[in-house]
Amino acid sequence: MDLELTGKTAVVTGASRGIGLAVAESLSAAGARVIGAARTITPELEKATVANVSVDLSSQEGATALVDTALEELGGIDILINNVGGGSPDRLTLGGFLDSTDDQWRHFLDVNLFSAVWATRAALPSLLERRGAIVNVSSINAHLPSAGPVGYSEAKAALTAFGKRLSEEFGPQGVRVNTVSPGVVGTRIWRGSEWVGAKLAAAQGISHEQLLEALPDQFGIASGRISEPEEVAALVTFLVSGKAANIVGADLVIDGGTIKTS
Fold this sequence. Notes:
The protein is of the alpha/beta class and 262 residues long. The chain is built from nine helices and seven strands, in the order E-H-E-H-E-H-E-H-E-H-E-H-H-H-H-E. A seven-stranded parallel beta sheet has the order 3-2-1-4-5-6-7, sandwiched between helices. Helix 5 (152-170) links the parallel strand 5 and strand 6 (176-182). The longest helix is centred in the middle third of the chain and has 29 residues, at 102-130. It is globular, with a radius of gyration of 18 Å. The relative contact order is 0.14. Belongs to the short-chain dehydrogenases/reductases (SDR) family. It is found in: Secreted, Cell wall. Pfam families: adh_short_C2. It catalyses: a (3R)-hydroxyacyl-[ACP] + NADP(+) = a 3-oxoacyl-[ACP] + NADPH + H(+).
């Protein structure tokens, strides 16, 4: 199926690994010219893109510098994927609300919400001119506020609402904005030795491998397995393609059936 992406230009944030890398690879394979943004540029990302920007997107200056570079390199932006998210493992606790610090809240909000606000604000003039598309990568945590570290679910809920606001304001002007909300995905957040999965395993007194095996049951995943980054990337790629021209303001969940309500 021709997704009508040949020659389109795209910016993908948080692109060095996981979902972001898979999106960059998928868009490139579909014919788009992709610029990736991450704090660390990996060899895998270099293979998938025409250029990359090493940048801290948890600051307004970083997001603006990324878009400025993309406009210079690409001549304009057709697609913006606000994928950067999560948070640094050394800046979070797994305790309750009273255990969380203002620094943790600010960190989650900067990484998961304001990075998208800043990048979108900078890219919108070009996206409006080209009648482009934005996808914000949120999380099912936006619908499950008690899940995850304090501040993370709240930041993702705000990101989902932000996408809806953008779709209402800029949809009539030709810019399509949608949200993709993954459930548990096989990225370093769960599989990495220093990230949330490993921290949860230690807190439960089990091995990391035991936790990973138990995740489908713990989350009630109807498919019996967690999602993979490439599956999320396929959905994102479709959403920004010409085949999804009238999908606007949607929040599409890809979670193997974790959320049980319609």
